[in-house]
Specification:
Distance between the termini: 92 Å
Helix content: 25-40%
Largest sheet: 10 strands, mixed
Number of strands: 28
Structural class: alpha/beta
């Protein structure tokens, strides 16, 4: 009997720690809790830690969450080594989408908010090495050098599982399977010694959290994430679970700090539960782009979806509006805007980077989506107001209606109109260098040029093509040009209606309402002024000059009719096709074009080009 007992003890001692036959699995995992930024029950949290004496975990808190009450409640447990406070950015911005936005990449924002956020964290919690928790664990590989320079204890990232990660210079896999020639999936990595914690989110699909949710995921995961901020579990679920469990709950004893989980990484073997790769596959083999599961530079997060933040139509519209504002801010840096205005606009843009807007717009209760829609647009509008730039009408329209109304689409012109300004002239080019396949060259405005002196103002239009005509008295046909001039840049001080009628309805944006408008065709030109009611009043007539060979048309206007400095005016130029019932609008040169298509009809809202603002 004694001999059998000794053999049994030896057998158990030699068995792997996670395979005790009668005592169950003994795996441990770090636990990372990410509460909503509105969480405030610090007394309840400290009470739960007092009840569960063996419980240890990591909490990711923003600087704003670290109130005096929060620090007083949590510091004793931090001192005991049972609670780790991880560094988290205010508003949880989605760093990769800011760093690499296709319209206006702003890596400088990522760098500055990281450095400022870490300073605030250390001011509140002391000069200790902290881990960093990006929104949903999504981090851009281009940020790794900066993160390493911040002397972080670890960085939370998504767990790749069996999906290989894209190769990143300086990032190396940590651990191989025990047998030579085989390697585990490359989900244990570090960047030049900075650990990248492999995290897996617990998801409950709207129901409350249970101890079974944790038990089922303990095996094979380095860190479990309870992400209440991103909606993977309900808000307050972690604290409710702690209040329901008895003090000796076994699952709580198997949880630890993320720092401890990362520090326990075994040398020479892959994480428990990892599947071996094919024989002979070296862990250091560079990964091809096709193997990375997405675009070059993609990095997994714990949502399980690479496009989690940008997949829905509402999210796409929101990111496009953000990109327009970010691009406007970038362009304003070189256009004489004062530093204080730039600083205020930058702060407003960073407020619009909050991940909750884009997460909620990806699918939530209607009221939540409406509130996120309004608040996001309010913050983006603030960017334009701080810069004293006209607010695009696209921001006055609901993101939800823009994305979801059947048959309705809103589009903003994506390229600024390049203009050059001289002492007595200005010149603006079409931002689209090549005409569309179905575009009629007669209606393509290639360049708009204005020259002035004491006697006249000459408007010259270079078109894709000018058709010579003997029928029209002034040598060309098939084209009606409109030029709408805003003298004062005062909203609604003038008219927003186009002189052309028929075809798709169109108008000038209210902030660029015109005081003077010129209409030119092969039958002559006419100068109109807007009366106080916004109606056009004929001021003068004349004959345009056409050069079909050079594809140019010129209009000379008397200076006595147009006083002021043309360099400071705003211009919208349109090209229309004459037709029965009125001209049909075919092309435009404008600062921005908001295109709204409804069913089979449509409407256009045009913003003015302003050469003095670098548009």
């Amino acid at each position: 009997m004694v001999r059998r007992s000794i053999l049994l003890v030896l057998a158990l001692a030699c068995a792997p720690s996670h395979a005790f036959l009668w005592f169950g699995k003994r795996d441990r995992a770090g636990l990372l809790w990410i509460p909503s930024e509105s969480f405030s029950d610090w007394e309840g949290l400290s009470g739960a830690l007092r009840r569960h004496k063996k419980l240890s975990f990591t909490a990711a808190l923003t600087p704003a969450m670290a109130t005096v009450e929060a620090r007083a409640s949590l510091q004793p447990f931090v001192a005991e080594g049972r609670l780790e406070i991880a560094f988290r950015l205010q508003d949880d911005p989605v760093l990769p989408l800011i760093h690499d936005h296709p319209s206006a990449a702003r890596p400088q924002d990522a760098l500055e908010i990281l450095a400022a956020g870490l300073r605030a964290h250390r001011d509140l919690w002391g000069e200790v090495r902290a881990g960093f928790v990006p929104a949903a664990g999504k981090v851009h590989p281009g940020l790794f050098p900066l993160l390493r320079s911040l002397d972080l204890a670890w960085v939370a990232t998504g767990a790749a599982g069996d999906v290989p990660l894209p190769a990143v210079p300086g990032v190396t896999p940590e651990g191989r399977m025990g047998s030579p020639g085989k390697s585990g999936p490359q989900d244990r990595r570090s960047y030049k010694g900075m650990p990248l914690a492999s995290c897996s989110a617990v998801k409950t699909d709207g129901r409350d959290l249970t101890s079974r949710d944790l038990e089922d995921r303990l095996s094979g995961h380095e860190v479990l994430v309870i992400d209440e901020a991103a909606g993977a579990v309900a808000e307050g679920a972690w604290l409710r679970l702690l209040s329901e469990l008895r003090g000796g709950a076994g699952v709580l004893k198997r949880l630890e700090l993320v720092a401890d989980a990362v520090g326990r990484r075994p040398g020479g073997r892959a994480p428990a539960g990892a599947r071996p790769g094919p024989a002979g596959a070296g862990a250091e083999r560079p990964l091809r782009h096709q193997e990375s599961g997405g675009r070059q530079g993609a990095w997994p997060d714990w949502t399980g979806e690479e496009d989690f933040w940008s997949r829905a139509p509402e999210q796409k519209v929101a990111w496009r509006l953000y990109g327009d504002a970010a691009r406007t801010l970038s362009e304003s840096r070189n256009s004489g805007v004062c530093p204080k205005a730039l600083e205020a606009a930058t702060a407003a843009l960073r407020q619009a980077q909050a991940s909750r807007f884009y997460r909620i717009l990806g699918g939530a209760a209607p009221r939540e989506m409406e509130e996120a829609d309004r608040e996001l647009r309010k913050r983006l509008i603030s960017v334009y107001k701080r810069l004293r730039r006209p607010v695009p009408e696209s921001l006055l329209l609901s993101v939800l209606s823009s994305a979801k109304t059947p048959g309705q689409v809103f589009e903003a012109q994506s390229q600024a109109v390049p203009c050059r300004l001289g002492p007595d002239w200005l010149s603006c080019d079409n931002p689209v260098r090549r005409p569309a396949a179905d575009e009629d060259p007669r209606h393509r405005i290639v360049n708009f040029h204005v020259r002035w002196d004491d006697a006249s103002i000459v408007l010259t239009y270079r078109m894709g093509r000018v058709i010579a005509s003997t029928a029209a008295p002034h040598g060309f046909e098939g084209l009606t040009l409109g030029t709408y001039i805003d003298f004062n840049h005062v909203a609604r001080a003038g008219s927003t209606r186009l002189l052309e009628s028929g075809g798709a309805p169109a108008s000038i944006s209210p902030e660029d309402a015109w005081e003077a408008a010129v209409e030119a065709s092969g039958w002559g030109w006419a100068l109109h002024r807007a009366n106080p009611r916004g109606d056009p009043v004929l001021e003068s007539r004349g004959a345009p000059q056409a050069d079909p060979g050079g594809a140019q048309i010129s209009v000379s206007l008397p200076r006595t009719r147009l006083r002021g400095n043309p360099a400071l005016w705003g211009y919208v130029v349109t090209a229309a096709e004459p037709a029965a019932g009125g001209a049909i609008l075919r092309g435009a040169l404008a600062g921005s074009v908001l295109r709204r298509r409804i069913n089979s009809g449509g409407s256009l809202r045009l913003n003015a080009v302003r050469a003095n603002q670098g548009l």
